[in-house]
Specification:
elongated, 5 helices, mainly alpha, 67% helix, 147 residues
Length: 147
């Protein structure tokens, strides 16, 4: 049976409340990874800020910033809707700029980073997931755009 415009519209219609879920399909993996990274970065930075702040304040503050970014993206993906998609897209772009900027900074001036951040060396300490994650998020959010 050929697809009509009515069946196509029914398939792409937003759920009740006008929000399209971003955390389904491949988005579910993104929600999971961003959730894990939120907890990992937040717990690591919280401990370091409390117990070791005088050792390397800049890396620990940057790790806390990354935790906030990860948390906001996770929240936006779970919330869904076009506004949340746009906010998550902007945050993923900011995250990518942060990973690239801090990754380059840590290689260019290692003395500024006596301890690593989540984004140091482009996320090498985290199997480069911090540089792959925002690229994947940007692709997913671009494809999940509503018509």
């Amino acid at each position: 049976m050929p697809e009509t415009s009515a069946t196509t519209a029914a398939k792409t219609a937003a759920p009740a409340g006008g929000r399209r879920s971003l955390g389904t399909g491949p988005g579910r993996l993104l929600v999971t990874l961003y959730g894990v990274f939120t907890v990992a970065a937040a717990s690591r930075s919280l401990y370091q800020l409390i117990a070791q702040f005088d050792v390397a304040p800049l890396p620990y503050i940057l790790s806390a910033v990354s935790a906030v970014v990860y948390g906001f993206i996770t929240f936006s993906l779970v919330r869904g809707g076009e506004g949340a998609r746009r906010a998550a897209f902007a945050c993923c772009a900011l995250e990518l700029l942060g990973v690239l900027g801090i990754g380059t900074w840590t290689l260019a001036d290692p003395s500024a980073f006596p301890d690593a951040t989540v984004w140091s060396d482009y996320g090498m300490g985290y199997l480069f997931i911090p540089v792959i994650l925002p690229v994947t998020g940007l692709v997913w959010l671009r494809r999940s755009r509503t018509a």
